[in-house]
Please model this.
Amino acid sequence: MILITGATGKSGSATANELFKLGASYRALIRNPEKENDLKEIGADVILGSVEDKDSLESAMADIETVLILLPNSEDQLSLEKQIVDMSVASGVKSIVKVSSIEATPDATSPIPRLHQESEDYIKASGLDWTMIKPNFYMQNLLSSAGTIKEQDKIFLPMGDGKTGMIDTRDVGKVLAKVLTEEGHASKNYSITGPEILSFHDVAEKFSNVLGRKIDYVDMPMAAYKDILSKFLTNQWHLDSVIDLFQGIVEGGIEDKTDTYSELMGQQPTSLEEYIAEHKFIFNS
Model:
């Protein structure tokens, strides 16, 4: 039996759907009862609770062999992931799969990659089998620009000329389902990108090609963007950490794509143009 955390988020729900397609037995620990029936319809054994609550976490761990750690970035994320690891050890879990970040490296200084790296180190020291899935920028993040693309034909972001390896969260879900249900992935670090490394000027060009009209990327000053973002991210740690992450993209981001997805899945990951074409109705007025 597999336990997945974060089952109601984009990557988590994609993983749940893929596990259902594979006929795998899995359990989802969720806090929102309104999502319970949706998950049950795709085969989940649902436990209502949270990773913060040790009792519900202990209940969710019963008869579990593999745990997926997939938590949203937060100030408490590292302590919560350590708690999941400790509970996994105490409950006789055999292996942990963690969704980390391609930026999580031993020399990481940005808060979010650094906490991912510290969590990776803690998991590796636990004695459990482990697999790290390390994606980059999600294509779904571009949905936050749908309003300005639709109304102004512009993408306002503070990324400079930095580059990312955008990947569809559904592709991440496919990888997660595969490593959760197969042998042979222990002690593997899987860095995953989409099929192209793109600047945000490139992103605007992709939108222009698919939508059939000129879309411009407007490189905003970071301070101005932070002021706008602060209206949505009210937690100061989260706000500062996201801005720090974006600053890392400004300073270069990543230069090289990986072939990890195609090697694991035997097919190419979704391209940005394919993603935009599928979601044209969101970006068109």
Summary: Residues 24 and 181 are 7 Å apart (CA to CA). The domain at 2-134+169-192 is CATH 3.40.50.720 (Rossmann fold). The first helix runs from residue 10 to 22. DSSP finds 13 helices and eleven strands in the chain.
